[in-house]
Amino acid sequence: MAMAASRIVLALFTLVTVGMLIGALFQLAFIRHLEESTGFTPWEQDEEARMLRLGFVKPEIISWSPRIIVLHNFLSPEECDYLIAVARPRLHISTVVDFKTGKGIKSDVRTSSGMFLTREEKRYPMIKAIEKRISVYSQIPVENGELMQVLRYEKGEFYRPHHDYFSDEFNLKRGQRIATMLMYLSDGVQGGETYFPLGGDMECSCGGKMVKGICVRPKKGDAVLFWSMGLDGSVDQKSLHGGCEVVGGTKWSATKWMRQKATA
Question: Which InterPro entries does this UniProt record tie to the protein (predicted)?
Fold first, then answer.
């Protein structure tokens, strides 16, 4: 009975969150329409609006099942370059979660290099602005976010399809992952698409190969927001995703995972 009640509450919470996000997206689209029709952009004098990049971010709904939204121009070029500069000296071989222990282990499933920002760095003005923006557009509190990870994929590197939600007891004690914000930090990348194999029967290019599903091409400043949980509060199997092989250039990205409850 308690489990059923918990699922109902979680489902209602998820439904309200999605409703708020849809409302925010329609509001942003309306504001954008007014700007384009009048040529007036009032955000220059509004600190909060500048932090959220109102008038620049353009949401595009890619799929409702799985739930995927691309936020064009989510990061400024300066923010992208800043994250790369912070990460570059501290890169190490990326790991994946061990389902038995909940700890990170090396695996041929993931062949990138990466690092995590520290809690102290979260307080830096530019990082703080990005964290706030992620919270507003996802409608998930800042304190529910894990530490941001910056990744570098060079030619021939990839991340095989996987789910972001947890299956191990160690991580579930700290709250299931609800959603992921994946931000692209570099241009000039061939391949390196974010691939959702269960996103439908349409064909798309993944690392130079045609596959069925949804492929999001990496573009500097854009972000992909997708949910690991369904509206009923259960994990969404269709959220399976991967990073296609990079066939040219270097792909830099930043990932923010968000959970059901505060992580700090």
Answer: Oxoglu/Fe-dep_dioxygenase_dom, P4HA-like, Pro_4_hyd_alph, Pro_4_hyd_alph_FE2OG_OXY
